[in-house]
Design brief:
Elements lengths: L1 H4 L1 H23 L9 H8 L2 H5 L13 E3 L6 E3 L1 E5 L2 H12 L8 H4 L6 E5 L6 E4 L1
Antiparallel strand pairs: 1-2, 3-4, 4-5
The protein binds zinc ion.
Main location: membrane
Protein name: LITAF domain-containing protein
Family: Belongs to the CDIP1/LITAF family.
């Protein structure tokens, strides 16, 4: 009878060995928990950016000179406009070529108007105000 009870202590040693590896696994599962709180402070940083952007007012510009207050010299002026070649000019010339009117393709580069972008500048300090 007593010889039969000797084998169970050796099985208990096996159960102690098998219990130790599962104890290390729950410790590794605790590492991902500190990571999720980090993205939460980044969202609050984004909300601070629009407050600095709204300080500057963007004037509504058109193809003709307009009267505005210059953002550089703070004088109330009527803008000087210049027509410059832009991507819109190239698109107009390309459209003329594709429709068979290739002989009129140089017209967007020669003439001003709607095919070129209008650059507004301050006549007082020559500061760049915007484009249309
Ligand atoms: Zn100015």
């Amino acid at each position: 009878m007593s010889s039969v009870q000797n084998p169970p202590p050796s099985y208990a040693e096996y159960s102690n060995y098998s219990n130790q590896p599962p104890q290390t696994v729950p410790i590794q599962q605790q590492f991902p928990q500190p990571l999720p709180p980090q993205p939460v402070p980044q969202i609050t940083v984004i909300s601070q950016q629009p407050t600095s952007v709204t300080v500057r007012t963007i004037p509504i510009l058109g193809p003709i000179p307009i009267s505005i207050t210059c953002s550089q010299c703070y004088a109330f002026v009527t803008t000087i406009t210049n027509h410059e070649i832009s991507a819109r000019t190239h698109c107009c010339a390309l459209a003329l070529c594709l429709t068979g009117l290739w002989c009129f393709a140089p017209l967007p580069y020669i003439c001003g108007g709607c095919c070129k972008k209008t650059v507004h500048r301050c006549p007082n300090c020559n500061a760049f105000i915007g484009t249309y």
